[in-house]
Amino acid sequence: MIGKLSGRIEYRTLDHILIDVRGVGYIVHVSERTLASLPANGEVVALYTDMLVREDLMQLFGFQTLLEKEWHRLLMSVQGIGAKASLAILGALGAEGVGRAVSLGDVNAIKVAKGVGPKTAQRVVLDLKDKAPAVMALGGTLSEAAGEATAEVVEEITETVAVKKPAPAKRSNASASAQAEALSALGNLGYAPGEAAAAVAEAAGDAPDADTAILIRTALKLLAPKG
């Protein structure tokens, strides 16, 4: 199983890229969102990968973070969701957006993805809603791991091929970490995982750059009894 690739981008198409890893070229399928954020051809990239193996097919799918990869694997477990539909959902919403949509039961957000109808979107929400809190709680850890690993790999390769190392996405890692910490705090206060995850997701959606304290305060207001 190939879990990660790092090398130079040789070329790209609308749905995949070819990565040259020490002379061996790997075709890696990616979402539109990931494709848009990748560096130019000839530059270094590091992607986590998931391999799909069937009797007549073998494909690699690439993700910039472990959180994105984890959501891909969960989406693929839903009946009617194949690799193409999973990448379409991740491309439309991003990993954190998928977490918010599933936690809040937002079927309309899911069906924005190309090729995903209302019934399939509803199935995604129903099948994954109980699993979403655990993935969201891991968000900070997975994002930090991805960022650290990618930085190390890029630094190693750039020393060899003499290209400029891209700056790490600190804001994204900080946001994911704040959400994970807020979710953990609400759990310690006795809130059920599902309602806590939904409140944190809504709070983060309204204020993407909010720190842990603000997310907790906002989530508590959302969880307060109405009336």
Describe the model.
One of its GO terms (molecular function) is hydrolase activity. InterPro entries: DNA_helicase_Holl-junc_RuvA_I, NA-bd_OB-fold, RuvA, RuvA_2-like, RuvA_C, RuvA_C_sf. The protein has helices at 32-37, 66-76, 83-104, 107-110, 118-128, 132-137, 139-161, 170-188, 193-206, 212-223; strands at residues 4-12, 16-21, 24-29, 44-54, 57-63. With 227 residues, it is α+β, with helices and mostly antiparallel strands. Among the domains are: 4-64, Nucleic acid-binding proteins (OB fold (Dihydrolipoamide Acetyltransferase, E2P)), CATH 2.40.50.140; 66-136, Orthogonal Bundle (DNA polymerase, domain 1). A hairpin with a 2-residue loop joins β4 and β5 (57-63). The longest helix is centred in the middle third of the chain and has 23 residues, at 139-161.
Judged by helices, strands and strand pairing, the structural class is: alpha+beta
Helical fraction: 55-70%
Strand order of the largest sheet: 1-2-3-5-4
Please give the count of helices. Answer: 10
**CATH fold descriptor of the domain at 66-136:** DNA polymerase, domain 1
* CATH architectural category of the domain at 66-136: Orthogonal Bundle
**H/E series, N to C?**
EEEHEEHHHHHHHHH
Shape: globular
Termini separation comes to: 54 Å
State the fourth-level CATH superfamily of the domain at 66-136.
5' to 3' exonuclease, C-terminal subdomain
GO molecular function: ATP binding; four-way junction DNA binding; four-way junction helicase activity; hydrolase activity
Main location: cytoplasm
Protein name: Holliday junction branch migration complex subunit RuvA
Domain Holliday junction DNA helicase RuvA C-terminal: 178-224
